[in-house]
Write a structure and sequence with these properties.
The protein is α/β, with parallel strands linked by helices and 128 residues long. It contains 4 helices and 5 strands, in the order E-H-E-H-E-H-E-E-H. The chain has a 5-stranded parallel beta sheet with strand order 2-1-3-4-5, sandwiched between helices.
Length: 128
């Protein structure tokens, strides 16, 4: 069975450690998804077009939320792109013992889910 392509969005200035852990955990054999580490690392004139092209290649967007996600303009832009392209996204609380903030582009109805592998598998499978 083909794995579901999922774009991983995160605050590169503060949460690269979350990305490394998330992508590493996603290599577990029963993972239903291929978590794409395709975030655009450097701001450029083509950043938004590059991000849009990468997001469009995926079926979902996983947003890893940390302490400063509310200040991460790139994460909010990626959420807006996902909505414009009709690609579902979900928010994951990346730090268990800290207050994780929601991206400013998140909708009030967007729930932030606890980071457990069972939750991630359910979210990817569309069971929210």
């Amino acid at each position: 069975m083909a794995k579901i392509p999922v774009f991983t969005s995160f605050d590169g200035d503060h949460d690269d450690d979350l990305r490394v852990l998330f992508i590493g955990q996603a290599k577990h054999p029963d993972t239903p998804a291929d978590f794409a580490d395709w975030s655009v690392k450097e701001e450029s004139e083509t950043w938004e077009a590059d991000a849009r092209a990468r997001i469009k290649r995926c079926d979902q967007v996983a947003v890893l939320c940390g302490d400063y996600t509310h200040t991460a303009t790139g994460v909010s832009k990626e959420i807006r792109i996902a909505r414009e392209e009709g690609i579902p996204y979900f928010l994951i609380k990346g730090r268990k013992d800290k207050t994780c903030t929601r991206p400013t582009a998140a909708l009030p109805s967007d729930k932030m889910y606890k980071w457990t592998w069972d939750n991630v598998k359910s979210l990817v499978s569309g069971k929210r």
